[in-house]
Amino acid sequence: MTQPLLIEIGVEELPAIPLLKTAKAIEKSWKNLLESYKLGTDFEFIYTPRRLVLKHSAIPIKQEESMIELMGPPVVAALRDGEVTKAGEGFARKCGVPFEELGRADKNGREVLYFKRVEKGVQTAELLEEMISKWIDSMAFGKMMRWGSRSDEFIRPIRWLQVRLGEESVPVELFGVQSGTQTFVHRMVDFDPVEVESIETYDEVLKEGAVTLYPLEREAKILAQFDTLEAAEGIIIERDRTLLAEIVAITENPKALLGTFDESFLELPPEVIITSMKEHQRYFAVYEGSGLSNKFVVVSNAYTQDYTKVIEGNERVLKPRLADGMFFYYNDLRNGLSTKGLEN
Length: 344
What we know:
By secondary structure, the chain is α+β, with helices and mostly antiparallel strands. The chain folds into three domains: 2-61 and 123-208; 66-119, no CATH class; 215-335, no CATH class. Helices cover 37% and strands 27% of the residues. It has nine helices and 18 strands. It has a five-stranded antiparallel sheet with strand order 2-3-1-9-10. Strand 7 (103-107) and strand 8 (110-119) form a beta hairpin.
C-alpha cells in the first residue's frame, strides 16, 4: 500500500550558485536514504529560492519485511565440554537471543551457529523525522550559518516545514521548527502563512500566491517572455544558459523587463559592458542590428501591476557600474600594460 508524500522545507532566500552546484547531490542523497530505509520509490526534488521540496506520488506506507540471516562461529568453538564459550555467548548477544535459540548450519563443510529472523517493516511516518534530518545534514553547500540561539547550521535559516503523508500531517521538528500544514507564498502577495488543505492543493496554493514551483516552468516562462520582447522590440536577447540557470534559482515569479542605459557607454568594448551587466547585475545583453544595444533585460522577482519603478531602479543601479567600467578602461588605455609598479 502506498500514499503520496510532500516534504517542504521553507527557508530564507537561498544563494543561487551553491544551490545549483549541489542540487544533483541533494537529490541523490534522498534517493540513497530511500534505498537504505527500504522505501525505494520515484520522487521529484524541486527548488525555489525559498523552499526545498520533495514530492512522492506513491511511497510505501511502511518498510518491506526483510529476512536477517547471520552465520556465527563453528560449533566446536562455541561449545567446549558442553559449556558455552565466549565466542558462543558473543554471537548469541549479537543476535539478541539466548544461546539455546541459535540454530546450526553448514558452511563450507563445517557446522556453524546460525540465526534467522524476519524483521518487520517500520511505518514510514515513524521514519520520516530521522530521514529528513539525515537528508538535511548531507547537504554540503560549503559556507553555512547559524541563527538565533541554536548551534546547528544550515545555508540559510529554516522558517517553516511541511511533512504530509497521505491525508496526515506528520509531526517533525527541524532546527526548532515544528512541521505544520501551512506554507508561504510570494512576499508581495501575502506576508502571512497560507493554509494548505492537502497535498493535492499544494501546487495550486503556490500558483495563486504568485509562486511558480517547478524550475523548468520558470525557465520556460522566462524564455517565452524573451520571445515576446524580441518580437515587440525588434531585438535579440542573448540566451546565456549559465545566467539563465541562476535566474531560475533566485526567482519564484520571473518577469523579464527591458531597460536602457546611456548610448555613450557603447564606446566601451562590448565585453566590458556585457561583463558589467552579467557578473554584477545578472542582466542579459541585448543586440540590435549588427551590434550590442544600449538596452538590457533584467528578470525581476517582483509581483506588481506596474513594473516602471523596477525598471527605473535597475537602470539607476547599472549606470555607476558602467561608469566604473569606462573609468578603468580608459585608465588602462592611458597607462598601457607596462609591468612597472607591479609586484610578485
